[in-house]
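no rush on this but wanted to send it before i forget. theres a chain ive been looking at and ive put its sequence and its fold in token form underneath. i want to understand how the tokens follow from the sequence so walk me through it. thanks a lot i owe you, the record is right below:
>
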Amino acid sequence: MVANRVGLAVWIYSLKQVKQLKRFGNVHYVSKKMKYVILYCDEERVDETINKLRSLNVVKDVSMSMRPWIKTEYQNSIPDKEKKDDYKMGI
């Protein structure tokens, strides 16, 4: 069974400790220039993982992705073709 995952952006001081972050979840991306790591962990353990990460001296800040809670089903934003191309309005 697939567990729901949440993405965490972990801002770090140095890239030397990236291997240390692998024990908290799956490391998806590491930015060398801006010094952050995208880490995925289980939704049930997000709060305890964030608290553990913030207690490390290596970590500047941790922010959680809000994507699982954002509505991704949209209404039809394209109007019907009849309403869009109604050129006979002024006649």
About this structure: The mean pLDDT is 84. The CA atoms of residues 6 and 68 lie 7 Å apart. The radius of gyration is 22 Å.
